[in-house]
Write a structure and sequence with these properties.
Length: about 270
């Protein structure tokens, strides 16, 4: 656009507007469903139980939470009986085989998870010298290694149920959940490399993006993006320098998440301390 403009929209963006955003960003940068796994604070993981390793000795990129057969059985029974969030009328269960909710996989059979996200193959628990019966792998979510993602654990379990069930994972008994898992309809762009730290498009600097579509999660966060876009758009019109909050602030950390091009699997993020 020739004039400075702001697009502000939320998770249920209309099809025509979503199509226009797809043309602006490239369709591969536009997503319609979240499939989010829980994130835990690194300092809350029990490193006396979790061990660092990648499969077949190919590095140490993951923390691994090992299960005995009895521990897995207890976890499986809790997972398959836990309460789930019902689908809304505007949501369709468009699950992809490569990104199924963990409880949907578990419902297919007792051993199904052992061939999916809880596969123990290629890992040796240094405490026992043997391959565990099952594992949950945790992957660092940020460069500082303060947050860890439960790999493959996207879920539609109710929040309270997630905390109860996932604390049965050895090493996560006292886990602090920074973000809980979800699968729901949500239109958002994969913003790293698309948006600047000022919330305007890198390729279209006179066009700003605000609201949940920018790649944040939650009411306060979406409003915050509107606030920042609303500050910067008039500054651009007045030929003043554009601004962004320091990374050490809550809003600055959100912006850093939106522009972090080293993120491999971008998903929207809530504010967290």
């Amino acid at each position: 656009p020739e004039a400075t403009s702001i697009i502000a929209t939320g998770p249920l963006t209309s099809e025509p507007l979503a199509e226009a955003l797809g043309r602006l960003t490239g369709q591969e940068h536009l997503h319609f469903y979240d499939a989010i796994a829980p994130i835990v604070a690194a300092e809350s993981i029990d490193l006396n139980k979790a061990f660092r390793a990648s499969r077949y000795g190919a590095g140490d990129d993951y923390l691994n939470c090992p299960f005995s057969e009895a521990e897995y059985t207890a976890f499986y029974e809790a997972l398959t009986s836990a309460g789930q969030v019902p689908l809304k009328t505007f949501e369709e269960p468009r699950y992809f085989e490569g990104c199924l909710p963990v409880e949907i996989m578990a419902a297919r059979g007792f051993r199904t998870l052992l061939f999916g996200p809880m596969k123990p193959v290629g890992l040796v628990d240094p405490r026992t010298g043997r391959q565990p019966f099952a594992v949950v792998q945790l992957r660092a979510e940020n460069r500082e290694g303060t947050l860890y993602n439960l790999v493959g654990f996207q879920t539609k379990l109710k929040y309270g149920e997630q905390e109860r069930v996932f604390r049965l994972i050895p090493g996560l008994e006292r886990a602090e959940f920074v973000r809980l898992g979800s699968i729901h309809r949500n239109t958002f762009i994969r913003s790293p490399g698309i948006l600047s730290a000022h919330l305007n498009f890198i390729a279209y600097p006179r066009l700003f993006l605000a609201g949940q579509v920018s790649g944040v999660e939650g009411y306060v966060e979406s409003a915050a993006m509107g606030l920042l876009a609303g500050i910067n758009a008039p500054r651009q019109v007045l030929a003043q320098p554009l601004v962004t909050p320091p990374r050490e602030t809550a809003l600055g950390a959100l912006i850093n998440h939106l522009i972090n091009t080293s993120t491999k699997n971008f998903q929207p993020m809530n504010v967290n301390f």
